[in-house]
Amino acid sequence: MPADQTSPTTPRARSRELAASYALGRRLHRAHGTTYYWATRALPRADQPHVHALYGLCRYADEIVDAPDRGSVAARAAALDGLRARFDRDLAAGRSDHPVLAAVVDTVQRLSIDPELLRRFFASMRMDLSVSSYRTHADLERYMDGSAAVIGELLLPVLRPPDPDAARDGARTLGVAFQLTNFLRDVDEDLERGRIYLPWEDLERFGADPRRRLADAPWRAFSRFQIDRIRGIYAEADAGIALLPPRSATVIRAARVLYSGILDRIEDADHDVFTVRARIATPVKMAVVGREVVRRHRPAPAGRDGVAPGAVGTVRGAGGGRPATSQRPLPAER
Questions:
Q1: Whole-angstrom distance, CA of residue 65 vs CA of residue 272
Q2: How confident is the model over 187-206, as pLDDT tens digits?
Q3: Which of 30, 43, 203, 261 is most deeply packed, by most CB within 10 A?
């Protein structure tokens, strides 16, 4: 039987395949997405596999697009298109025996996820094979609709907000903030792949060129500008966290603190993202998640705006450090 067809198996065999697929998603998540992996640990145990499944698909698609051993651009495009077509067929069939898609199809069905969200994701992954840079921030936002904002939408059924429509904008905005943080941290790694996920109009305004791989004065000026922009987007997204149930808010708040803490690390390195990779140590990740879980069970007095003081917290915990939010306004150029 051709490899792209779903083969008939016994219920017991299908159950084993599904369990193996969820386990693969968890391994991929833990190995490659540690920041969000540790935040996910605060979700109810029954919900965690669905996050692992969705992350596993994202990582698997990334590997198709980026792995040097995948062959030519045409070959990688064909493989990605084949994965998208396989997803559509297996979803229509109601199950999959693909090692990654089995859990994804099951998650989409169980949580009634709109499959169009995943098609938008595949479309952005396809762009990576033909687009290597972006002229404006608006151009980059169009790419991030399917590579980042849509991830926030995909997770809403797991997070179970009382009003999904009201929570959608915040989820999308936070997904964008996460990805912009990654783009700044990983600029050197992306250059190795021939891509720049930083708007050229902003780089040129400061006279910065990441291709020099040098944290010179123009680069530091651009990096400060970009960090201000990203922190402003995090601040926009914070209102959406308040629309989530307490346990889900704990997870997203922890992820938000950890991801925004990467910006602190970039500043600590004087904006050198070329020779030093901004990292949050695993013990810190675990401590932040633990602190947010404790916070969920401990009532705190509300501030003047109705938000508990320190509700977002810092990545440096008991050691002090700057807040993960920023009071600086979003730059006017955006």
A1: 27
A2: 999 999 999 999 999 999 99
A3: 261
**Residue 329, amino acid:** P
pLDDT of residue 309: 35
Pick from 126, 110, 128, 127: nearest CA to 53: 110
Judge contact between 257 and 205, C-beta under 8 A: no
What is the per-residue DSSP string for 193-236? TT---S-HHHHHHHT--GGG----HHHHHHHHHHHHHHHHHHHH
Q: pLDDT at residue 9 above 90?
A: no
Structure tokens at 143: 């790419």
Per-residue pLDDT reduced to its tens digit, 133-171: 999 999 999 999 999 999 999 999 999 999 999 999 999
pLDDT of residue 283: 85
Q: Kindly report the CATH number that applies to the domain delimited by 131-299+309-334.
A: 1.10.600.10
Minimal CA–CA distance to 202: which of 150, 141, 259? 141
- Looking up tokens 């145990």, which residue turns up? 45
Q: Can you give the residue ranges of every domain in the chain?
A: 10-119, 131-299+309-334
Nearest C-alpha neighbor of 266 from the set 332, 219, 232, 196: 219
CA dihedral 48, 53, 59, 61 (to 10 degrees): -160
Q: Are 184 and 223 in contact (CB under 8 A)?
A: yes
Whats the size of the chain, residue-wise? 334
Choosing among 3.40.1000.70, 1.10.600.10, 2.40.240.20, 2.60.120.10, the CATH entry for 10-119 is 1.10.600.10
pTM of the shown model: 0.85
- Give one word for 198, left, alpha or beta, with left for phi > 0 and alpha for psi -120 to 50: beta
Among 114, 198, 155, smallest CA distance to 29 is for: 155
Fold: same for 10-119 and 131-299+309-334: yes
DSSP code, position 187 = H
